[in-house]
Design brief:
The chain is elongated and about 55 Å long. Helices cover about 75% and strands about 0% of the residues. It has a single domain, classed as Ferritin (Up-down Bundle), CATH 1.20.1260. Helix 1 packs antiparallel against helix 2 and helix 2 packs parallel to helix 5. With about 180 residues, the chain is mostly helical. It contains 6 helices and no strands.
């Protein structure tokens, strides 16, 4: 059984994960509007991952005998000046997600809920990857400066991104690989 305090905190995180998905969809829409289809694709994949994260928390609450309470998702920002600004925003957002997951871990440990701590450890590891991925893109874009050729090449490269195996399994209703 999950404590009410942890249940409420995870419900808040579900909302934040869906909000994260909205943020990445807004970023994708901005990129599509600017004809950066590879960047748009990368952000769409990111949005799917955030929805997967929300559903992972969603199912966890039910598995622990709790109750999910879905809340209003606020509207994300949808306008930036240039592509690097979008990825900088994404990086800042991922840092916020990491902080929130760490706070959830602190609460799980305080509540002595080792089952929740095990789930949250997966998210902590995921956040290491999330931050590194976006930071790498920001760093590449900074090195490129105003080179339109380089931005075009990165846009094409990011178009090749695919959803991870867990997310793909979730989206297709297939059994998930061990994770």
């Amino acid at each position: 059984m999950i404590s009410k305090k942890l249940e409420e905190a995870i419900n808040d995180q579900i909302n934040f994960e869906f909000y994260s998905s909205y943020i990445y969809l807004a970023m994708s829409a901005w990129f599509k509007d600017q004809n950066y289809n590879g960047f748009a694709h990368w952000m769409e994949v990111q949005a799917r991952e955030e929805t997967f994260h929300a559903m992972k928390f969603f199912n966890f609450i039910f598995d622990r005998g709790g109750r999910v309470e879905l809340k209003t998702i606020k509207q994300p920002v949808g306008d930036w000046k240039q592509p690097v600004d979008v990825f900088k925003s994404a990086f800042e957002h991922e840092q916020m997600v990491t902080s929130r997951i760490s706070n959830l871990m602190d609460l799980a440990l305080q509540e002595r809920d080792h089952v929740a701590a095990a789930l949250l450890q997966w998210f902590i590891n995921e956040q290491i990857e999330e931050e590194a991925s976006v930071r790498n893109i920001v760093d590449q874009m900074r090195m490129m400066g105003d080179s339109k050729d380089s931005i075009f090449m990165l846009d094409r490269e990011l178009n090749a991104r695919q959803v991870g195996a867990l997310v793909a399994a979730y989206l297709t209703g297939q059994p998930a690989p061990n994770a």
